[in-house]
Design goal:
Helix content: 25-40%
Number of helices: 7
Strand order of the largest sheet: 4-3-2-1-5
Largest sheet: 5 strands, antiparallel
Strand content: 5-15%
Number of strands: 5
Distance between the termini: 40 Å
Shape: globular
Oligomer: single chain
Length: 223
């Protein structure tokens, strides 16, 4: 999915898609939900994916979003629709992908391991009553999630996140020159270089996200 560059553009794109996808009697609630999540890239990515690829190929709308779990900036969300259906989506700050219906759960072993589920029975047990699942809260400026890559406090950023702090100079990792000097290169344009940087960061000690690292707080080098 090609996600628009700005949240405003993404919202406009979703509004356009909704004109052709949402039944007339569901429009008001669908628009209210979009309004609620208009500043949340995770929700917007999911809504864009839903309306581009209607799961059943018939007109429908997103009525609610509920959070099952999240890890390293990747969210497992339950989508409830105006037609009374429920789906599972895996979402990050770049894209959203449908897993299947809530009743099917998660079959993929890699996904189960990533989110810490022993097996699909555990997923099905946790989602037996979707209306009781925790509602997904829209991102706010005082959230404990990184505003760029959406990892939680205490987790490591997605490599390349502009909020990550450099462990060598305490500046912003994507803006300082440390990555070039440590690798003895002038430009980083190969996968092998990125993997080597990851190794060096882990050896030195990557700095996990804290809320004060985000916009509006002084950086470590300012302190």
């Amino acid at each position: 999915m090609d996600v628009p560059k700005t949240l405003a553009d993404c919202k406009k794109d979703i509004q356009f898609l909704m004109k052709y996808a949402v039944p007339e009697d569901q429009i008001e609630k669908a628009e209210a939900l979009l309004k609620r999540y208009e500043a949340d890239v995770i929700a917007l990515n999911l809504l864009h994916s839903f309306y581009v690829h209607l799961p059943e190929g018939t007109d429908d709308s997103v009525k609610g979003l509920r959070l099952l779990t999240r890890r390293q900036g990747v969210f497992l969300l339950c989508v409830s629709t105006g037609n009374g259906l429920h789906y599972l989506y895996v979402v990050n700050n770049e894209a959203a992908h449908i897993i299947g219906t809530l009743a099917e759960g998660i079959i993929d072993r890699e996904l189960l391991d990533f989110f810490g589920y022993a097996d699909n029975r555990e997923v099905l047990a946790a989602t037996r009553e979707p209306e009781k699942l925790r509602e997904y809260e829209p991102y706010t400026a005082d959230s404990r999630l990184c505003p760029s890559c959406q990892v939680a406090e205490g987790e490591f950023h997605t490599l390349g996140c502009p909020v990550e702090i450099c462990p060598w100079c305490s500046g912003q990792l994507t803006y300082c020159n440390c990555r070039f000097t440590k690798l003895d290169i002038d430009a980083m344009d190969k996968v092998s270089q990125i993997e080597k940087l990851r190794e060096l960061l882990e050896e030195t000690g990557r700095i996990a996200y804290k809320r004060e690292h985000g916009p509006g707080y002084p950086t470590m080098e300012d302190e």
